Every structure is written in structure tokens, then in C-alpha cells.
């Protein structure tokens, strides 16, 4: 269905089982299958309150989707009110029901994709990329296939709206290390751009893609949405598919072309 030199990545985030809209869940499953993706990336918040029943529902939904899937946790997958569990085994439910792999990585054609855990139990809402994680990503990129487009998945945005220094420094360091695309969630707002909009990341530009909430009823100024990335060796198109009239429909698209120093973007028309 796709050319051998291109890949389709479906990017979901903030499912929030426990506060999900079941009609949207069914519509999302159908939409994902119709897209026939090569990879599904989910950037965290599988549950609303990290409860076992919520993880089981999230697990059932994941099992209804195509494979392979690359998954990372979000802050809502860490217990909020159970302080003992939050401090002793913060990702116990996640590793029991979703995946034990907190450092996922796969290569598919021209795409190398990896995930990192940005949750921090003592700062429940905020995220962080620690020095060890930065070094691990740098080392992994050095061993990635030459010329591959490198995609990093995390829950918390690196391109933070409030300009937090930790986020800015991590974004710059990872872009300099060779990351081409950042896939994140957390804010329940869709956004696509590149690092040159606000930062000079060591002379390189990377594509920044933030997803809205795919299935939650906790909406913030937009309907449920998810992203589709169509990636070839020289181009990336990022589509936003939004819930409208009982189905997910293409709302917008933006195209990026590969240059010697990163990526240059231009708007593309929606259907």
C-alpha cells in the first residue's frame, strides 16, 4: 500500500482511559486501521489515574491496533493520590499492563524511532530529561542506520511554551545529536513546527510535533485529535486528524523538506 522508500507513523497521545469517550475510541481504532501505518507511536497518558482497571482498558485498546507499537509513559500513568506507590513503584501499573520496556527503539526502512521516559514521581505533572537519558540517546543515534530519519518520542514537550530552561537545553542537545523529529503530547493541543521558530539548536533544525488528546473527554480548545507522519528520506508530511461529525477527518497538513542543516517547513492544504 505504501512505497518501499516511505513510512507512515500514527502518533497518538493522552488516551486517558478512565475519562475516555467510547465513541471516539471506536472511531480512532477504525481510523488507525484504515491508515495502515508501519508504526504506531503513543506518547503517554494511557490512563487518567493509573488504576488497574484503567490500565486494563488501555491494554485492550492497544491490542486492537496494528503492530508494531512504540510506547512511552506519561505523568497520568504514575499514581497521584497513592503516595507510597508513587514513590516506591511509580510505573508499576504501566510496566504490568502496558510494557516493561522504558527504552523502546526500532528501525523501519528510512526511520529510526526511540522513546524515553520523562516522568518524575516527585514532580507529578512536570517532566525531565536527565543527563543519563541524554547520553543514552546520543549513543543510540551514533549507532542508528546512516541517513535514517531519527524520531524521538516522549510525553512532555521539549518545545515548552513557558521556555523552561531544562526543556530548552534538552531540545537543543538532542537536536544537535541528530534527532530530526520530536513526538510529544501532554498539553492536549496539536502543534507542528520546527526548532528554528524559537531556538538556534546548534545550527540544526528539527521538526516538533505535539499531539492533542486522542480519546479523552478532557478537551482544551480543540476536539480529539491525533497525528499522521508520512516520512521519506527527504520529506516529512505531518497531518492532524480531528474528530468531526462522528469520525476522524484530516484537518490540516504541513510539509517539511530535508536540508543539509535540518528541516524547512511549508504549509500544505488539507482535504
Task: Describe how the helices and strands are arranged.
Layout (H helix, E strand, L loop, with lengths): L5 E7 L9 H14 L3 E5 L8 H12 L5 E4 L10 H6 L3 H6 L7 E4 L2 E5 L15 H12 L6 E5 L11 H13 L3 E4 L6 E4 L12 E4 L14 E8 L2 E10 L2 E13 L2 E7 L3
Parallel strand pairs: 1-2, 2-3, 5-6, 6-7, 7-9
Antiparallel strand pairs: 1-10, 4-5, 8-9, 10-11, 11-12, 12-13
Helix pairs in contact: 5-6
Largest sheet: 7 strands, mixed
- Average pLDDT level: 89
Oligomer: single chain
Instruction: Enumerate how many helices there are, as a single number.
Output: 6
Overall shape: globular
Adjacency order of strands in the biggest sheet: 3-2-1-10-11-12-13
Q: What is the total tally of β strands?
A: 13
How many domain modules? 1
Give an overview of the whole structure.
With 271 residues, the chain is an alpha/beta fold. The protein has one domain: Metallo-dependent phosphatases (Purple Acid Phosphatase, chain A, domain 2, 4-Layer Sandwich). Helix content is 23%, strand content 30%. It has six helices and 13 strands. It has helices at 22-35, 52-63, 83-88, 92-97, 131-142, 165-177, and strands spanning 6-12, 39-43, 69-72, 105-108, 111-115, 149-153, 181-184, 191-194, 207-210, 225-232, 235-244, 247-259, 262-268. The longest helix is centred in the N-terminal third of the chain and has 14 residues, at 22-35. The protein starts with 5 loop residues before the first strand and ends with a strand. Residues 162-166 have low confidence and may be disordered.
